[in-house]
TrEMBL record:
Superkingdom field: Eukaryota
A Pfam family reported for this protein in Swiss-Prot or TrEMBL: Amidohydro_1
Matches recorded under InterPro entries: Amidohydro-rel, Metal-dep_hydrolase_composite, Metal_Hydrolase, MTA/SAH_deaminase
Lineage, top ranks: Eukaryota, Fungi, Dikarya, Ascomycota, Pezizomycotina
Protein name as catalogued: 5'-deoxyadenosine deaminase
GO molecular function: hydrolase activity, acting on carbon-nitrogen (but not peptide) bonds
Residue span(s) of domain Amidohydrolase-related: 58-425
Length: 499
């Protein structure tokens, strides 16, 4: 691994109050960590060091997506017109079309899309476990991808037959709980990059059952939990955070990320604070799917900002670029705030939120949400070398990158401007191109004949082939019948569905 010297860039550091301080400096990486940040670092002659010229470049902390479903990358664009109800009827059980080898390629594709866009850490909400092999394939892909991840194994109801609809709701069955235990006790994976967490979306069991499961999870050594929560006419009306509070399942040593927290109930923000939980805003999916405006940066009565982070959610809905999600989140928060004045025919003197606020959700606050602030989230000596280099001379970034580098990233950039990405001291994207991926011999069972060393061209060819197959499988299902059957299965009140 050796040493890498980022020479002469604009380094985005953070002060103790979370303010971003851009400095002209060098940054030295040794093995997996940031060893030194100072101007004009001199190394002894003959030193084995790789120098990256960062003239006119912006060196940023890698981005942290605290809510994402990497397995959904073979369903790209399929859910971009869905409401939450349509997703529940037509998308939720698309996991049933995935064999373990599909999951391997889907997770690899999702992880690499993130790295390409500057994402270096993902909390992966994984709800596709139809067999123990499904999770093994996912872990193998995460190891190969180079991404840092908290793989949250989410047991969920398994579709057995489309029509008549048959669903296996025994989500805490022996093989599944044994697999979680096995994965957790053998963790971490990928040279320490991949940890095991737990996900749960189905809180339909009684208190004793739920409490018992969370005790088991703790006994397995799992310290990360995630769940979806939003109030919706098509779903739950009650506060799930209040339920967690009553059940007493939030362990103080466990890092909880509650995804969305949209249309919140009164007191929800205080419950996050009380239990030291964080929320993850996923603006594209929430705003599209009738789940409500994101709450991370603005809400009329509750303040979620102290406990907020951001995620890209679903590849089947939107791209996984976090700067893109940051931009949507920021402008929506500003629009809601501005509207609250305009409704009274007044005009605010200033905007309510800044690009720095939203940039921090994907960096320092994302790290806090995962309980990893001592490892990732900022460019600081001693922290892991998770680094993104933006080319400040591209058509999108020139001028902005030199004047307001954080604004340039949040408001102007796309993944095409990301020149280099390093995760855990290893360069995974260079000169704007993803580096080859090395799998291991035991992954052969998932690769389906593909070679051990994979170029992006080979990977994308396989992903296109698999996406085509997935689309055919999904479109072979009778859509109208599924809408009817799943509505009944989920006990959605037809009276709330209009249009
Ligand atoms: Zn989600």
């Amino acid at each position: 691994m050796g040493r890498v010297l980022f020479r002469g860039g604009t380094i985005l550091t953070h002060d103790a109050n979370d303010h971003v301080i851009p400095i002209k400096s060098d940054l030295l990486v040794e093995e997996k960590v940031i060893k030194e940040i100072s101007p004009d670092i001199r190394l002894p002659a003959g030193s084995d060091v790789r120098v990256v010229d960062c003239t006119n470049k912006v060196v940023s902390p890698g981005f942290i997506s605290t809510h994402q479903h990497l397995w959904q990358s073979l369903c790209k664009s399929l859910w971009s017109e869905y409401t939450i109800l349509e997703y529940l009827c037509l998308g939720l059980f698309d996991n049933a079309h995935h064999q373990p080898s599909d999951i391997f390629w889907a997770e690899l594709g999702g992880a690499l899309e993130g790295i390409d866009a500057g994402t270096t850490t993902v909390m992966d909400h994984a709800h596709f476990h139809y067999s123990p092999e499904h999770s093994e394939a996912a872990i193998a892909a995460l190891e190969a991808s180079g991404l840092r991840a908290v793989f949250c194994y989410c047991p969920s109801s398994r579709l057995q037959k489309h029509h008549p609809l048959e669903v296996d709701g025994d989500i805490f069955c022996d093989w599944s709980m044994n697999k979680i235990k096995d994965l957790a006790q053998n963790a971490p994976y990928g040279d320490g990059r991949v940890q095991i967490g737990f996900g749960l979306d189905e809180f339909r069991f009684d208190r004793d059952t739920t409490v018992k499961v969370f005790k088991q999870i703790k006994a397995y050594g799992i310290r990360h939990v995630t769940t979806h929560y939003f109030r919706s006419p098509a779903g739950a009306k009650d506060s799930r955070l209040a339920l967690f509070d009553i059940y007493g399942i939030v362990d103080p040593d466990t890092h909880w990320v509650v995804s969305h927290a949209t249309n919140p109930a009164p007191g929800d923000a205080k419950l996050l604070e009380k239990h030291n939980m964080y929320m993850s805003a996923a603006p594209s999916s929430a705003m599209q799917m009738t789940m409500g405006h994101p709450t991370a940066l603005y809400h009329r009565t509750e303040d979620f900002f102290p406990r907020a982070s951001v995620g890209a959610d679903s590849h089947a809905i939107c791209g996984s670029s976090l700067p893109s999600e940051m931009r949507i989140l920021l402008q929506d928060a500003r629009a809601q705030f501005n509207d609250s004045f305009v409704e009274q025919w007044k005009s605010p003197v200033k905007l309510n939120r800044s690009v720095e606020d939203v940039f921090n959700l994907a960096t320092v606050k994302g790290a806090r949400a995962l309980g990893m602030a001592d490892q990732i989230g900022q460019l600081k000596v001693g922290l892991a070398a998770d680094i993104v280099v933006y080319d400040g001379s591209t058509p999108a970034l020139y001028g902005g990158a030199q004047t307001n580098p954080v604004t340039a990233i949040v408001m102007l950039s796309s993944p095409a401007d990301v020149e280099l990405v390093m995760v855990d001291g290893i360069i995974r994207k260079e000169n704007g191109i993803l580096k080859d991926v090395r799998t291991v011999p035991k992954d052969q069972r998932w690769r389906e004949g593909a070679s051990e060393n994979l170029t992006w061209t080979e990977i994308s060819a396989k992903l296109i082939e698999k996406s085509n197959t997935m689309r055919e499988r999904i479109h072979s299902v009778d859509e109208q019948q599924m809408r009817k059957d799943v509505m009944q299965f989920l006990r959605v009140d037809p009276a709330v569905v209009v249009g």
